[in-house]
Write a structure and sequence with these properties.
- The complex is a heterodimer of chains A (232) and B (189).
- With 232 residues, chain A is of the alpha+beta class.
- In chain A, 56% of the residues lie in helices and 12% in strands.
- Chain A is built from 9 helices and 4 strands; from the N terminus they run αααααααβαββαβ.
- In chain A, a hairpin with a 2-residue loop joins strand 2 and strand 3.
- In chain A, helix 1 packs across helix 2, helix 1 packs across helix 3 and helix 2 packs across helix 3.
- Chain B is an all-alpha fold and 189 residues long.
- Chain B folds into 2 domains: 108 residues, Orthogonal Bundle (Rna Polymerase Sigma Factor, Chain: A), CATH 1.10.1740.10; 74 residues, Orthogonal Bundle (Arc Repressor Mutant, subunit A), CATH 1.10.10.10.
- Chain B contains 10 helices and no strands.
- In chain B, helix 9 crosses helix 10.
- In chain B, 46% of the residues are buried.
- The chains are: A alpha+beta (232), B mainly alpha (189).
- At the A-B interface, helix 1, helix 3, helix 4 and helix 5 of A face helix 1, helix 2, helix 3, helix 7 and helix 8 of B.
């Protein structure tokens, strides 16, 4: 296998080669760490360079640690300067937010995890209760629409009344598609969109039950129709 | 640095923005040594480095309200330190100080050749790390000692991430050349 490392001084280093120091310091992201690990496993030259880097890493730490620490003079000078700064008026909102942030920061990861779990459980319970209430009180839109008392009474009195249906069009249906469909079925809209459904009337003659069923079936198979239900 | 400590640093900064001196003391206690060492490696003068950390933390006191938390507090501190160190170097005429300080440091102990004669490769390596240019020194320190990622170094130094990678590579190459000149062969490059 071709070596990933490039030993010649005049050659540009490879991407992996340049990432080696960060791998040694443990500051690479998991993806790059994996890439470097794989390259190190298959390229002995790269592994040799990595050993050199580990040595540099250790000595750089050693060198920096040997630099000692600043004297107390630096801190005294700093706080003397701070004393000379104008006083601040902390805002109430910032004080509260700082305390809240401080409170969460003071919690241990375990406590935070438990709190988050309890919070999630409480949310689930709440969702369950709301869902149960909604299901219990639910009435379907067909029932509501077909039981409408706003319709003219004459409509359902005789068998000669033309058929009607509640139709829900597909969301992607365009006005032109709907108009064409209405023309094709000689239908007209006789009721506004309640719950996303239109009340349509087909032609001006009555139909038998079988004819109405056939009409609904045909209507239902239209691309732009999601639902078609015959109504009185 | 752990995520918990990073979060706590953010809280300290928020408290400092409110004028909390105790929070300032805690933050100072936590970071002043690293800030001092980073500054010292750049300016190579303990007195100047001590003055630097006072200036850096005074800036933190003044600017805490503007800290947006987009980077770690330690990264922010090192970026301020670098800026202050470069300003201090400019004030003291960079080149003169560098030569002067390098000579002063060399006077304190053996040069790389002598170190090798003592068969102390580690010491030679440390001497050569000290002999790197300020640009190379800072990037080596930021990555190895301050454990900064590529992105964080880019932010501190103010250069693109790809430049960070190549700069460290060439710093390491320079280090290898210095070691080679001192008679130390490590098998790379």
């Amino acid at each position: 296998m071709m070596a990933v490392s490039k030993q010649m001084l005049d050659q540009e280093p490879s991407e992996i080669e340049m990432l080696l120091p960060w791998h040694a310091a443990g500051t690479l992201n998991p993806r790059d760490t994996r890439r470097v690990d794989e390259a190190l496993a298959r390229d002995p030259e790269l592994a040799r360079q990595y050993a050199v880097i580990c040595e540099e890493y250790a000595e750089t730490i050693h060198l920096n640690e040997s630099l000692g620490a600043p004297s107390a003079r630096a801190m005294a000078k700093l706080f003397a300067a701070i004393d000379g700064e104008p006083a601040r008026n902390p805002s109430a909102w910032l004080t509260i937010s700082t305390r809240v942030a401080g409170f969460f920061a003071s919690l241990s990861p375990r406590t935070l995890a438990w709190s988050a779990s309890l919070g999630a459980l409480a949310l689930l319970l709440q969702a369950g209760v709301i869902g149960a209430v909604l299901v219990k009180n639910q009435t379907t839109s067909f029932q509501t629409a077909s039981l409408s008392t706003n319709e003219p009474l004459t409509r359902a009195l005789g068998p000669e009344a033309p058929p009607r249906a509640l139709v829900r069009f597909a969301p992607e249906a365009r006005i032109a598609d709907i108009t064409a469909l209405l023309d094709h079925y000689q239908a007209s809209v006789v009721g506004g969109a309640k719950g996303g459904m239109f009340r349509l009337q087909f032609g001006d003659k009555a139909m038998t039950k079988d004819e109405i069923a056939g009409l609904m079936s045909k209507l239902q198979s239209e691309r732009i129709v999601n639902l078609a239900v015959a109504t009185p | 640095m752990s995520a918990t400590q990073a979060a706590t640093d953010d809280v300290l900064i928020a408290r400092i923005a409110q004028g909390d001196r105790l929070a300032m003391q805690v933050l100072y206690g936590r970071h002043h040594v690293r800030v001092f060492r980073f500054g010292l490696r750049l300016v190579r003068d303990e007195q100047v480095a001590e003055d630097l950390i006072s200036e850096v933390f005074l800036d933190v006191w003044r600017q805490a309200g503007k800290f947006e938390g987009r980077s770690a507090v330690s990264t922010w501190l090192l970026a301020i330190t670098r800026f202050k160190a470069l300003s201090a170097l400019r004030r003291r005429k960079d080149a003169e100080l560098d030569d002067e300080a390098a000579n002063a440091i060399e006077d304190t102990s053996d040069d790389p050749e002598v170190a090798v004669q003592k068969k102390d490769t580690s010491e030679a390596l440390r001497k050569c790390l000290t002999a790197l240019s300020p640009e190379h020194r800072e990037i080596v320190d930021l990555v190895y000692y301050h454990e900064k990622s590529v992105e964080e170094v880019a932010e501190i130094v103010g250069i693109p991430e790809n430049t960070v990678k190549t700069r460290l590579f060439y710093a390491r190459k320079k280090l290898a050349e210095l070691l080679k000149a001192a008679g130390v062969e490590r098998g790379w490059p």
